[in-house]
């Protein structure tokens, strides 16, 4: 047992008091009984007779310290030390008084002086350890406590203190061993059980932790530390709802516990209760404003609420309090990227990696930011760095594949396909459903990838309670959801449809969670909707509640798995019927999306097993278009387009990531077979342009025969297409809006349909225009037809003439006509719902 010596042993030099022994012994007895005021009266009487009685001065100093009058204690004990400097116990008690005054350095010196005089003085060593503990020097504190245990049996307090220090040092298993001894010494005390539970959790034994914490609560119901610990157990096991309930039980007994509120906030974030999380984390910040971890978690909540500037301020404040916090700097960089300050974000991520080179997520985030800047080669290097740090970083592995495709870096093409396949088969987070559409994968893999992605992002979201909708007589309430109500391809397709909807039968709401680019297209869309909701600053749950309150009947997602989607909104089931349309040519894998709008060409009925949505086939082509698109009258010259004055112009204005090695090889063979011909491609990024040129040279084709068209405005881009002779489509991801634009301008599009929706869009467009002669049965036929059209200008001329005549007045480019079939589909979907029938696919005549 640790000695608590407040008096001198009879053999100590100061014990030879000349004061009346009876009076001193009476005072000591009162002192030991805790009757401090009475003891003080007797001590004062003894000192009145002998003011220099050192033993009495010493004991009165100890008493003063116990009374909370540490300043007076220091004065008294200093007198004793001055007269007798070689007594260990006096130095130890002097250290206690100094410690109470906050004079830690002097207290440490006093304890060390006591130990120099008496190395076996465990009381002084224990108190020295407690000073180190209070100062956060856990290693030195543990060393002191272990030294005490080496000399004598420990108390419950000593084993608890040593356990706490070992736990702070990350030695959870050793801490648990100390707490087990404390439990044996005091089996009916709640605190040792509580400490043991927390240590077991840290040591990776949540079941043992739960048992110990429940024992602590049985011994002391409502013990806040045990309630908090049990909540931590549930959170570690991803039992977030139980964790929240447990933390809330602890709140009344811990009104000033910031850690409790911090942990509650984190559990709420996992449950997507972001507003509640922000509220409780804000309380934690008030309680402990200098704790970086809490600032970081509060910043995360604010960021998810769309309050990016406030989140950035929290992360920067956390860095002031903890400049070495890699999480704070990493998160700050993420917000900078979200705010469009990409170059600043890159600099911050590089700083994180300079200070923490083993931080795989920072390298991954750096890669994503560089990807946003279209610095694909540098992005690839960052993803490779993340994988070098953590070979199991699935997201980095998948992003590296995506980056190489964006840069047309095909050096590892087959290996990259194998990586995608492994990620999909294991439901790992790295496979991006969108990039898989441009990869030669099976329909089963496309669906599996999408399902896994939705499960990760939306699996914990619970649908809102079903709200009764009003009678069928009122117009059906539609809500179109998109981040692309701007100068974007999807907006250019859907604008006239929105305007043309029959307002006697439909009420149309636009739900926008993308940026306001100030374009004429955005202004047109705002005016075209009956109601336009800008929900960028709202959480998914808040948007879902808005749609529910508005009584939306059919929610139409125009995004799928494309960038900046917010599928989480529909995961709440704000509408009884939910539809995927136009923006994503693949299965969403979302159990909360009922239908996909398609047609008989892009999605034949036999494809239903590979779709989570019920297939709805419209008459004609599924793709909406806009008859109001401006057709430029002035065509730039070949020279203005960077094209040679003569020679056949093959072109493809698809995004570069859609180009695959086998398709590009066909294009190069065409260049070789058609002297003087050129291949006109979109210059999407510098890395792809360089890699395509390199690939051409490796196949013996002069790189100057690849003409890279810079990005241009819509009208300029449409106009320059008239200088091309033949558009060569890609596979397995066709031209979509790009194809309909080319055909509108009279440019023949040669395609080869594949198995997937994404691989059959151009065929659908050509079928709708009665231009089936441009649909090749396979890649061999595709190459042969392209070569024949390049060599037989009269055949190509006939096709161009037919196309130009067909386009005029074609229903494909009439949004007002298109809406008739789509509205019929919506009415049929709603009729099934109102009849209490489940979603079922159908084809409209």
What is the number of E strands? 13
Instruction: Supply the helix-strand structural class.
Output: alpha/beta
Distance between the termini: 92 Å
Please tell me the overall pLDDT: 93
Shape: elongated
The description of the largest β-sheet is: 8 strands, parallel
Question: Could you estimate the helical fraction of the residues in percent?
Answer: 55-70%
CATH architecture of the largest domain: Alpha Horseshoe
- Main-sheet strand order equals 3-2-1-4-5-6-7-13
Query: Class of the largest domain in CATH?
Result: Mainly Alpha
- Rg is 38 Å
Low-confidence stretches: 1-13, 15-19
Individual helix count:
39
Any idea of the CATH topology of the largest domain? Serine Threonine Protein Phosphatase 5, Tetratricopeptide repeat
Domain module count: 5
CATH superfamily of the largest domain: Tetratricopeptide repeat domain
Q: Report the sheet-strand fraction.
A: 5-15%
Question: Briefly, what is this?
Answer:
This protein is of the alpha/beta class. It has 39 helices and 13 strands.
Main features:
Serine Threonine Protein Phosphatase 5, Tetratricopeptide repeat; 845 residues; five-stranded parallel β-sheet; eight-stranded parallel β-sheet; 13 strands; 5 domains; disordered N terminus; 39 helices; elongated; alpha/beta
